[in-house]
Amino acid sequence: MKLWGGRFTKETDELVNAFNASISFDKRFYKQDIRGSIAHVTMLAKQQILTEEERDEIIEGLKGIQNDIESGILTIDESCEDIHSFVEATLIERTGDVGKKLHTGRSRNDQVALDMKLYIRDEILELKELVNSLLKELLTLMEQHTQTYMPGFTHLQKAQPITLAHHLGAYFEMFYRDRTRLEDIFRRMNTCPLGSGALAGTTYPLDRAYTAKLLDFDQATRNSMDSVADRDYLIELLGAMSTIMMHLSRFSEEIILWNSNEYQFVELDDAYSTGSSIMPQKKNPDIAELVRGKTGRVYGALMSLLTTMKGLPLAYNKDMQEDKELTFDAIDTTKGCLALFTGMISTMRINRPRMEKSAMGGFTNATDAADYLVNRGVPFRDAHGIIGQLVLRCIEKGLSLEELPLEDYKDISPVFEQDIYEAISLKTCVEKRVTLGAPGSRAMETVIEECRKRLLEH
After folding, report:
1. Hey, which end of the chain has fewer CB within 10 Å, N or C?
2. Per-residue pLDDT tens for 197-253?
């Protein structure tokens, strides 16, 4: 049954019906639609637009529809145009004329806007919880690895020694920012559009503030045209999820490298790996690779919705129906990736000796050797050149700075003494970096304690 067919004298073409319908994907927020309708009729009764008896009968009917959908007694009819039409048509079928009063003072435009906001609020809370779970796992690993030495990289070349805790701490900061972005979006979008009508409000004496309170919104929206035309919060959410996926993808790329035979920094658990159909020795990091690959899928949703919205005049246009499938898929993708990634890093095995051995190669302590000279009065630019010569000699002899004999050091600069070896040890190189944000254990312990506190916020 069409709820808007009075104006029309012939049936809509079946292909047009299928093209126009959204129930195949918007059926997922039947609970939000019913919740919004219950709040709406509660307000209508308060304003004496409906009687209390009509309110109670409609609410009982709506709750019965939800219970029957969830128990499997009632199947959502996908021949209906959308979930709103299905719920209202089913209500009328069950309650008769009183069900026809449900839509009093409401348009499908503000109803759609409300349902989407209610649904997105719930999804943001789930996304935030998944990010929190990842942050907790990162914090656990940081606490365990303040003494796990590894090379830090720039340009994918070994640069300076750090710890695994320090490296993981960088991702903690990224995902913490992601959590705050989700909180910001929730706070900014938490205004109720119901009562805006099609675009110009309604002549009924609605109490929009009361409806907003019933639905746990901070307040009602301030402009009825913007209320039905606003998709900024979806674009913001897709942007935030794109950033989450970008962070997951960067981390996945490193895990893929670390898991390779050349690095052997980590070994992924069998539950998060697959084998090769032809090469029996292979253990592939498929989850990390899929997370990396699915990032483009979420980016695509963001760009698609931005493109859809860029030329739309006020107020509502049917183009906006394209927001749902894109957003639903991006949310499902991001949630799945967060859950799987968290499981993957919680079960991977860390190869500490291999990380430390790698940090000892590649001259990651060259800067500390230069600092040794500076602390003995050598200008930094001269010290830089001296250490460059030492590195060249090490390469020629196939040695590391730790292995190079003291006479070679003195041959290039008489300033060097036996204590150079202590100055360039991995432990010294890391532990003397004590400024806030550095990898030294004292600095890391301060940051880890702050991370614990931040996890408990909000």
Report:
1. C
2. 999 999 999 999 999 999 999 999 999 999 999 999 999 999 999 999 999 999 999
Report which of 288, 302, 361 is spatially closest to residue 330, judged by C-alpha positions: 302
> Which residues are annotated as catalytic?
155, 276
Cβ–Cβ under 8 Å, residues 83 and 76: yes
H or E element, residue 41: helix 30-46
Task: Tally the residues of the chain.
Answer: 458
Q: Are 373 and 386 in contact (CB under 8 A)?
A: yes
Q: Are 129 and 337 in contact (CB under 8 A)?
A: no
**Token pair for residue 65?**
């529809």
Are 117 and 35 contacting, i.e. CB atoms less than 8 angstroms apart? no
- Name the one residue in this structure whose structure tokens are 């041959």: 411
In this structure, what token pair is assigned to residue 114? 């409300």
Nearest-angstrom CA–CA distance, 140 and 200: 53
What is the full DSSP assignment across 122-174? HHHHHHHHHHHHHHHHHHHHHHH-TT-EEEEEETTEEEEEEEHHHHHHHHHHH
The DSSP code for 285 is -
Average pLDDT, integer, range 192-200: 97
Provide, for the chain, the percentages of residues in helix, strand and coil under a 3-state DSSP scheme, each rounded to the nearest 5. Answer: 65, 5, 30
The Cα 77–Cα 96 span in angstroms is: 19
Distances (CA, A) of 149 to 166, 391, 449: 10, 21, 20
Terminal Cα distance for the chain, rounded: 46
Structure tokens, 454: 């931040």
**CA 63/CA 33 separation, integer angstroms:** 11
- The residues, ordered by sequence, that sit 6+ positions from 223 with a Cβ below 8 Å of its Cβ are none
127-148 pLDDT, tens per residue?
A: 999 999 999 999 999 999 999 9
Beta bridge partners of 153: 158
CA-closest candidate to residue 251, choices 296, 297, 288, 287 = 288
